[in-house]
Amino acid sequence: MRGIIYLLIATLLAAMGWVASKFVVSHMPGDLFLGVRFVLASLILLPFCYQRLAKLDLKQILTVLGVGVFLGLALQVWVHAVTISDSLSEGAFIMSLAMIIAPLVSWSLFQIKPNRSFWLALPVSMMGMALLTLGSGWHLESSQLYFLMASVLLSIHFVLNKNIGSRLPPLLSICLQLFAVGVVGLITASLSEPAVIDYSWNLLWWFVISTVFATSVRYLLQTMGQYKVKLETAALIMILEPVWTMLLSITLLQEQLAWQKLVGAGLIMLSLIAYIKLSRREAKLKQLQQASTGN
Question: Are 23 and 83 in contact (CB under 8 A)?
């Protein structure tokens, strides 16, 4: 139960990060915000893993940082989408499609064919995406397109991160990757026009929430939770993030969603749950078949 509670809190903190980011980017450039936020977040996590970091060789460090760069690129696109979006709820559900897109990325990069459950979940998620983009006719708004691009980049990060995941302690990997995200943001900010920041206590408050709670504490709790529960359970809990985001957006930002977009969000959630559940069932059947063949 402790692991489940950790993950539930982590999803709520992640949703708070969406709302906090929306407030922050209205007062400062998004790339600078990401740069400072994630460098500070990595430094907060560093005391928990610096001893293991000292034992890594240069190749291992560069590999993890390289994977973090893909996360940085995904978040650069994401923060731009947040800046121009009028609906964080839509963005959160579109970003959750990264879990569905990831098998296609794995197939193209490593020739690992998607399982049967993926092909069953894919059309459901596509219908959900279609309903989310329904307005006065079917069209993608620019913010929705950027959220979709960020989702594709995030799926690439998922695949690459899974490829190196078994080689390093999760917290150490997260710390290095958050640092890489911050560096990408700072480099992008240095290439942009000089930052204009509207300083206020409100900005500081939301920046602290996004950096300390929605990033450092969130990833720490997420790592601890994933360690204590089964992978399938963790995955099911983590897809609550867009639901929390929708509820917080409606409560704090007075956001409204048309009925067809709510149905679209529900279909995306359904596709994710079905994908995880069916994948788990397929894995068990495969294990049973292998066991019977061995006997």
Answer: no
How many Å apart are CA 41 and CA 212, to the nearest integer? 6
Q: What is the mean pLDDT of each run of 10 residues along the chain (295 residues)?
A: 84 92 90 93 89 86 90 92 87 86 85 83 85 65 88 87 73 90 92 78 91 88 76 73 87 81 85 83 76 65
Question: Two tokens at 259?
Answer: 């009925």
Entry pTM: 0.85
User: By the 8 A CB rule, do 60 and 243 touch?
Assistant: no
Cβ neighbours of residue 198 closer than 8 Å, sequence gap 6 or more = 27, 28
Nearest to 39, CA basis, from 189, 207, 186, 170: 186
Half-sphere exposure of residue 199, counting CA atoms within 13 Å on the CB side? Answer: 1
The 10 Å CB-count burial string (b at 16+, else e) for 177-215 is: bbbbbbbbbbebbeeeeeeeeeeeeebeebbebbbbbbb
Give the integer Cα–Cα distance in Å for 250 and 253.
6
